[in-house]
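Example for tutorial group B:
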């Protein structure tokens, strides 16, 4: 008889953290699961550690994925998973004891939702952690499908090792795509574009440990520019469905970096009518107006691409004060 839940845990040279990650799954209050440990060419003692657990617990299956990369390891787990539900886990994090129980219960009680995450407890192991702390604070601030839709172009809306979803999503929409982009973010945007309803639990069901070797710190696929390329690809379909002036937009932010990122939207067929900035005529490449000169709602659609910490919130506050409606008159992308 197949298990109800398949937990997919890829690992690569994780000997210092893997044991604690595995134990946090084995100690779950919900018992009917399989734990798929996917070795992705580890050269340390990770495989030995994983094998020692597999020999003692029949719920564990130890798999090998020789093609390097977390996307390939994740897909190996997806193809071998037998459960009706899929849970993601990282080799350097800790799941809270009732995580699987609560996420499964939520999906069972909310059949219209297919994909659920949770809040996380951020545990830094680096001095340079302010950016990650701000991201976690932001990610922990919204939960509903509507809020996730509105925030999906800011950053990845559901922290990846918390995700828990119905198996049929993978069967219909595929798993992780491998390329020069953040595979977890691309997968979530692809699912959202297909109409998948995502939610999060307002509980810290995972300790998210931030080590210096975390891929989001070391891999170019997780750079700001790689994220913007992924956003641009999926923004077009979002704009078709939600922007009343599609393909035309106004971009908030006229600095050099923002203009470069805006070109990614143009490559996808988006037409930029002009820029909005705190400095009028900041660029002569297109019409650039001062933010106080924006027209009344129902005349333009604004995409805010400013990434400076704290400014995104100020822009949103100003637009709402001017009676602009998020998702109808403007969207945040940065």
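The residue assignment follows.
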């Amino acid at each position: 008889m197949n298990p109800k839940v398949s937990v997919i845990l890829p690992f690569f040279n994780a000997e210092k953290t893997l044991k604690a990650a595995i134990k946090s799954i084995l100690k779950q209050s919900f018992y009917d699961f399989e734990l798929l440990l996917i070795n992705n060419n580890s050269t340390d003692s990770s495989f030995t550690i994983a094998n020692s657990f597999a020999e003692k617990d029949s719920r564990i299956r130890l798999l090998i994925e020789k093609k390097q990369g977390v996307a390939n390891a994740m897909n190996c787990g997806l193809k071998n998973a037998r459960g009706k539900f899929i849970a993601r886990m990282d080799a350097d994090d800790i799941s809270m004891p009732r995580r699987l129980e609560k996420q499964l219960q939520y999906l069972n009680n909310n059949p219209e939702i297919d994909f659920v995450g949770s809040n996380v407890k951020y545990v830094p192991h680096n001095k340079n952690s302010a950016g990650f702390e701000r991201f976690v604070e932001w990610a922990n601030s919204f939960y509903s499908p509507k809020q996730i839709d509105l925030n999906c172009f800011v950053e990845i809306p559901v922290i990846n090792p918390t995700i828990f979803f119905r198996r049929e999503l993978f069967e219909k929409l595929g798993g992780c795509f491998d390329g020069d982009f953040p595979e977890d973010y691309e997968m979530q945007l692809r699912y959202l574009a297909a109409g998948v309803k995502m939610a999060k639990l307002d509980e810290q069901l995972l300790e998210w440990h931030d080590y210096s070797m975390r891929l989001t710190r070391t891999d170019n696929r997780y750079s700001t520019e790689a994220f913007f390329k992924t956003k641009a690809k999926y923004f077009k379909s979002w704009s078709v469905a939600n922007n009343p002036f599609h393909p035309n937009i106004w971009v908030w932010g006229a600095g050099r970096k923002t203009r470069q990122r805006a070109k990614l939207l143009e490559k996808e067929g988006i037409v930029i009518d002009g820029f909005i900035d705190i400095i009028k005529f900041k660029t002569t490449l297109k019409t650039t107006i001062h933010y106080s000169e924006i027209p009344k709602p129902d005349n333009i659609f604004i995409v805010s691409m400013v990434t400076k910490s704290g400014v995104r919130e100020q822009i949103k506050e100003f637009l709402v004060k001017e009676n602009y409606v998020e998702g109808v008159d403007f969207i945040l992308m940065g």
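The first strand starts at residue 5 and ends at 11. Compare this with the pattern of hydrophobic and polar residues in the output above.
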